[in-house]
Amino acid sequence: MEIYCTKDYEAMSRKAAAIMAAQVIAKPRSLLGLATGSTPVGLYRELIAGCTAGDLDFSRIVTVNLDEYAGLPGTHDQSYRYFMDHNLFDHINIDIANTHVPNGMAPDPEAECARYEARLRELGPADIQLLGMGRNGHIGFNEPGDAFIAPTHVVELTDSTIDANARFFASRDQVPRKALTMGVGAIMRARRVLVVVSGADKAQAVKAAFAGPITPQVPASILQLHPDVVLVGDEAALAGLKGAGCLRCG
Ligand code: GLP
Q: Would the CB of 141 count as within 6 Å of ligand 1?
């Protein structure tokens, strides 16, 4: 595992974007696994700048997203389809038909999960899977539980996740209670996993995930079993690893 500790959010975004950009340049037909949340926004901004400058070409890139809220259409400003379009896809030369996000409005969410999983299998392993992390150690919407769940599945969001995501909605009541998420299977099949974390409120989860036991109570801890993980975080988010003697920052 490679760990890059950066001074702040902006430096984290530049470092992580450089890793994604290297992938896009090295393999113009890459399959990129993408993530939502506030953490990757700066990274996406850097990729947009690279594309605008003519340094990055996304015309043959294919993407798969981790998750989507159940019950939100792609036109809803808190849906993850909307997030991806507005924070990345609308600003780069990607073919939107090559971008995949689970359909939160599918009448039968279980069937939609099966369809999405089949599509993931058809596309093959992601060349690189980007991940943020929830404060409870969740990845995608794989919430803490009794077991790791491999395929794409419907999940009941935990109170902690609903609380954390309420800031994006008019009120907590409006946060969907369910989501469709890629399971840990497709995440672990990715050739490389790039985890981005920023801020002191992630420090505990980062420490538990990478310096604690591998347990479904901390879903990100399964990444300890992946052969090629790159963790890019700012000093505040990596403070717990530093404390555990796993890392020297600066
Ligand atoms: C959501 C997403 C995750 C993301 C997490 C953290 O729950 N499903 O994929 O990693 O939020 O978000 P943030 O980066 O805003 O802290």
A: yes
The per-residue pLDDT for range 103-125, each reduced to its tens digit, is 999 999 999 999 999 999 999 99
Task: Print the domain residue range for 66.
Answer: 2-193+202-235
- Which residues is 142 bridged to in the sheet? 139
CATH number of the domain residue 122 falls in = 3.40.50.1360
Distance of CA 100 to the CA centre of its chain: 14
| Ligand 1 pocket member 44 (CB < 6 A) | no
Number of domains in the chain: 1
The answer to whether residue 105 is domain-embedded is: yes
144 part of a folded domain: yes
CA dihedral sign of residues 94, 124, 141, 7: negative
Distance 133 CA to ligand 1 centre (A): 6
Question: How many angstroms does the Cα of residue 36 sit away from the middle of ligand 1?
Answer: 6
d(CA 72, CA 186): 23
